[in-house]
Design goal:
2 copies of one chain form a homodimer. Chain A has helices at 12-23, 41-49, 90-105, 127-140, 157-166, 190-202; strands spanning 3-7, 27-34, 54-57, 109-111, 147-149. By secondary structure, chain A is α/β, with parallel strands linked by helices. Chain A has a single domain (3-202), classed as 3-Layer(aba) Sandwich (Rossmann fold), CATH 3.40.50.620. A 5-stranded parallel sheet of chain A has the order 3-2-1-4-5, with helices on both faces. In chain A, helix 2 (41-49) links the parallel strand 2 (27-34) and strand 3 (54-57). In chain A, helix 5 (157-166) packs across helix 6.
């Protein structure tokens, strides 16, 4: 059975990514991070999605609304700029650990649920970046031959939700909100807006709770 | 004053790298890791070399003699194979954190003391890997424009020691041994052999202690 390391945050995209990797026949090793994110609730979601989930605690250097309570999470809508929720080098650090884990467990494949359509404009979600990471990874490791799989990269959020639903993903176990109120999603941050738009376009009902303003 | 992040392990190479970055006029932010290495003593050395040294604790996934006491550190001499002291994705993870730190403190430059001549054959020390990392880093970050500096890459160990001595590096504060006995170097592992060869060729005396067999 081929092995794969799946970056699993507990969000909608990575949960779908895990389901795709399983459907492709991979034995899946899921990996997530406690990096001081506001939405730490996602870690509990990831554990519920994957019983053998591995969590790595890493420090953050600040510089992002997702880890610094002094910087507000924008709530006015998705823009074309890279937002203040960008976390410096986040996916680079995540993929680097995934690579180390993959090399140790003998996995050839890494899955990451990045998306270049309904996304917030983060540079570490673009296809060019992923290709460059794969190239670097294969030059810098003993094992080599790694493939970074990004099955969601060209799908809309609605298409991701439709595919995940077909594969049996229970989206009630996932979270997306950057700034939850208790366990409820805020409904106003970029992540909530993209998720809600995706469910609306897919014609499906989002099973998670949103806070009542 | 231009800022740089310096990967500082506490070893001979990274100590020299720090001195070079300072000589080039950079304000230096040093970064090191506790990754479960046998030679944890190097962390104390790094602190002595740089008062504001930042240390990040990260888990290791095993798979290397440097972090797994069940795997013996080879003592019979440097070979042409990648040795069991290779740590999966180590420099990739280190450089990724350096990149995040650099982006947050506004540093454009990262220094890493990799060497492609008197080295152990690690894939994550090769020029091709470093170039690929820099390319990936500039595609995957908001700031972009990062330069990965490898001032030692084409120097012999003897040349590194001569240069560092000229720049005032106190090599008594450094360590290299993979498998120290107390605070004494073993004198037999690859790192000790390369260091001793370098000092011998440079005509200088190594100020650290080696264990008496």
């Amino acid at each position: 059975m081929k092995r794969a390391v799946i970056l699993l945050s507990g969000g909608l995209d990575s949960a779908t990514c895990l389901a795709i990797a399983k459907a492709e026949g991979f034995e899946c090793f899921t990996l997530g991070f406690d990096y001081g994110q506001r939405h730490k609730h996602e870690i509990e979601c990831a554990k519920n999605l994957s019983p053998n989930h591995k969590i790595i605690t890493i420090p953050n250097f600040g510089g992002s609304a997702l880890v610094d309570n002094k910087i507000e999470v924008p709530k006015s809508g998705v823009t074309t700029e890279i937002p203040v929720t960008y976390v410096p080098a986040r996916n680079i650090i995540f993929l680097s650990f995934a690579l180390g884990y993959a090399e140790v467990v003998g996995a050839s494949d890494i899955f990451i649920g990045v998306n270049a359509l309904d996304y917030s404009g983060y540079p570490d979600c673009r296809p060019d970046f992923i290709n460059a990471f794969q190239n670097m990874a294969n030059l810098g490791t003993k094992a080599g031959g790694f493939k970074i799989n990004t099955p969601l990269i060209n799908l809309t959020k609605a298409e991701i939700i439709a595919l995940g639903t077909k594969l049996g993903v229970d989206y009630s176990l996932t979270t997306s909100c950057y700034d939850p109120i208790g366990l409820d999603a805020c409904g106003k941050c970029d992540a909530c807006r993209l998720r809600l738009k995706g469910f609306a376009e897919s014609g499906l009902k989002d099973p998670i709770n949103y806070t009542a303003y």
